[in-house]
Amino acid sequence: MQQRKSKKILIYFFLLILVGSINNNSINNLKLEKVKNINIFGLEKKDQKIILYNLNNLDLKNIFFINKKKIQNIIDSNSLVEEYNVIKRYPHSININIKKTSFIARINQNGKFYLIGANGKLSDNNNSGIKLPYIFGNPEIKEVLELKKIIDQSNIDYSQIKSLYYFKSKRWDLKFTNSIVIKLPEKIDKKILDKISIFLKNIKLENKEIVDARIKNQIIILDE
Fold first, then answer.
1. What is the topology classification, in CATH, of domain 37-100?
2. Which residue of 51, 67, 214, 220 is most buried, as measured by CB atoms within 10 A?
3. pTM
4. How many other C-beta atoms lie within 10 A of the C-beta of residue 52?
């Protein structure tokens, strides 16, 4: 038994020397190529170029020793990116698959309008063709995302909202494309919005009327 163990140890020892010799010779003769191709999918060409420019500035040496964190930082800094994955294609290519964020509203900050992405980031308001509601007031972006989430869970059609007004009390007013305004309570959830939705479907309202739902278990109709 002891002899078998000794033989195994000797065999492993010689294999280690052999593999080590092969690796050393291979490394000495191996010339690692620089990354030649970076392919980005999921964005328009003009947006791809911005990311490519920043990635090329990293001077990526070769695919085996890529600093993933630096690549992640560049992609994460782009406001259009919601999700992505990076795939190495040996010997010298990288594929980056991106899911572009969707935009949910426009907001004015310091006299300039921005697009709010579902990823919680602000983008330049370059695309005026997108039909989105305007936000007035100074909410935190996370508050906008939370409101959008609750509305999407309810029976209220977000696409019919023209404007959202935010107050310092952390309360919202919703103005619809038919000019009807809903005054929401400070604390809202799906049930409250569903009750308002049912009320709107069963009551014929004239344009520019206000639906006041701020008082618990009450809905009051007011003229503007």
1. Ubiquitin-like (UB roll) (3.10.20)
2. 51
3. 0.79
4. 16
